[in-house]
Amino acid sequence: xxxxxxKGQGIKQDYSKAMSWYKKVxxxxxxxxxxxxxxxCRQLLIFMLMV
Length: 51
Prior knowledge:
Blueprint: H1 2-7, H2 15-50
């Protein structure tokens, strides 16, 4: 959506809305990365407890 607003593809070009969408995606990616890091940490902890 950010790129659509940035380029004005089929809608009125709006840099403010584009930035808002880019920030939303960035937050979602950060949450995903955090969740994946927690999975790795959990697996490492399980491994360490088994040794």
